[in-house]
Amino acid sequence: RNSGRAAGLNPDNGGAIDPKNLKVKLVLLGDSGVGKSCIVLRFVRGQFDPTSKVTVGASFLSQTIALQDSTTVKFEIWDTAGQERYAALAPLYYRGAAVAVVVYDITSPESFAKAQYWVKELQKHGSPDIVMALVGNKADLNEKREVTTQDGIDCAEKNGMFFIETSAKTADNINQLFEEIAKRLPRPTAA
Ligand code: GDP
């Protein structure tokens, strides 16, 4: 069972974790162009704006959601912003991450292969109890689909990940993605 000190659950109040109000670092991984920034902007701002990029560097966007059981989860969302090329940075990027979201584009088998690479990286560098989601984005482009839903399901199952197909463009399954992640977070036990 969870001891209450789950990796990545960063307390605001100097040590004690408030199990009702979780704050978690979420890292995004995936090939450039799969829609990571668009997913974040859809979730945080409710917009689809392909021209606007999530801030590069040491900052992140955050968004809080409320769950049915009256707990809240504040996501601090880190976008790689292309830094995935600098392998030396990876351990820093993953450090303290409670959640990793690996994104591919359902029209791009290359991006799916790359997603599998990132899953391996996470297994190497991520915290052992990190919650991992596999996201097949651009589900609105179904007529150009080249990665089947079953391929996504199989990959996720093999790696103990949560799987969902989304569209940042139509907003399909974007909120669901974050809600499902929130439900899967290790809950600190109120000691
Ligand atoms: P990133 O490099 O992974 O952050 O990708 P971006 O968020 O910058 O998106 C790359 C391109 O894909 C942009 O031109 C977006 O308009 C497009 N895009 C992102 N999400 C979707 C989606 O769900 N559906 C469609 N059709 N296009 C998308």
From TrEMBL:
**Which controlled-vocabulary keywords does the entry list?**
Nucleotide-binding
Look up the domain of life of the source.
Answer: Eukaryota
Gene Ontology molecular function, alphabetical: GTP binding; GTPase activity
Which GO biological process entries does UniProt record here?
Answer: vesicle-mediated transport
PANTHER family, per the entry? PTHR47978
Family annotation (NCBIfam families):
small_GTP (TIGR00231)
Q: What is the name of this protein?
A: RAB5B
| Organism of derivation | Solanum tuberosum (Potato)
Which gene is this protein's source?
A: LOC102600546
